[in-house]
User: Which sequence fits this backbone?
């Protein structure tokens, strides 16, 4: 079966979003600079293109935090953008939402359950825990993440949502497995020790 | 004349030192993993060797925080390790300390003064603001830093001294100028907009 990876972009000073997140500014004020590698870099930079493609290419299911879902759903269009089963970590029970080939299943019994359901849905493919920051922290703390895919955008945001803020079990030694870069981001992959013993 | 660069190693989660810094643990507990690129990598990895050499090769003077000085001075040996003029940012007036070819001048009137004195001492060479984190933050906030040289060690420390914690004037857009990596660190250089108008 596939692996579980967490993937997100952060600023050089470690923020996954700028301050004052709102529907108008889903990455916070000034946060759009984080995703320039996605919106500008992928136009003509093969490194950014490869990194963007890898987000989907081997991914069979996604795990998303509730806030990310709420901020994104109106932007993701009629097909829901992902084209795969998505599991939304939330406290509010809700019926599955279908948008074209994308399904959003709301999971109220915690990150282990969300990742477990995503792994079952993904089959042989990988599961992407795509944030926000709090969801990724929960997944790391639960020992569920085998690979960290970080994109570091060339900006100091100074304030906002810290990607790594509530880590347990630190220090956690990582293994650098891949580095690539464009002028819009440094793309890093690290292998992590998974402690979860999930068996399908 | 040369430029002012700030250079330091941080963890993937942005800590320049682990928790509980002490003379026995100058980088905090678990902090030694930060400098493996210096102590292990430079033994046989040319990328780590190049990055370590660059710390000294064009540098004519150093700016050091008081705490870093206090923690380091007994480790730096009879020649003071730097072989160049060092300016120590402190609140306590003290006479210049000479260790072989290294001089430590104690500067009590702020980061601008420390960097200005260092630039004069460095002549055509560069000035390295080498930390700790607070000293680098002060230099960035004063618009004194033209280049940021970051080494990212493959570890999540979870706690300690955050490298970027008190930045003003953010967001600060950076320009990525160099990326290299070994298994012990990702080495990044960013150009920053200097706002200081120092003239010798």
Assistant:
């Amino acid at each position: 079966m596939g692996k579980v990876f967490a993937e997100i972009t952060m600023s050089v000073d470690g923020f996954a979003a700028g301050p004052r997140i709102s529907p108008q500014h889903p990455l916070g004020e000034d946060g759009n600079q984080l995703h320039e590698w996605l919106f500008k870099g992928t136009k003509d930079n093969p490194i950014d293109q490869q990194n963007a493609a890898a987000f989907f290419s081997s991914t069979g299911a996604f795990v998303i935090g509730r806030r990310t879902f709420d901020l994104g759903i109106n932007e993701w269009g009629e097909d829901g953008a992902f084209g795969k089963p998505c599991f939304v970590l939330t406290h509010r029970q809700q019926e599955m939402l279908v948008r074209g080939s994308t399904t959003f299943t709301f999971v109220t019994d915690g990150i282990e359950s969300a990742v477990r359901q995503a792994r079952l849905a993904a089959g042989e493919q990988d599961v992407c825990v795509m944030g926000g920051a709090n969801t990724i922290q929960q997944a790391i703390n639960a020992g569920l993440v085998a690979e960290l895919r970080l994109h570091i955008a060339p900006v100091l945001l100074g304030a906002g949502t810290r990607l790594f803020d509530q880590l347990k079990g630190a220090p956690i030694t990582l293994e650098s497995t891949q580095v690539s870069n464009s002028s819009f981001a440094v793309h890093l992959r690290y292998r992590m020790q998974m402690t979860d013993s999930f068996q399908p």
Q: What stands out?
A: Chain A touches chain B through 36 residues (CB under 8 Å). Helices of chain A lie at 36-44, 46-57, 66-72, 111-122, 133-141. Chain A has a mean pLDDT of 95. The first helix of chain A runs from residue 36 to 44.
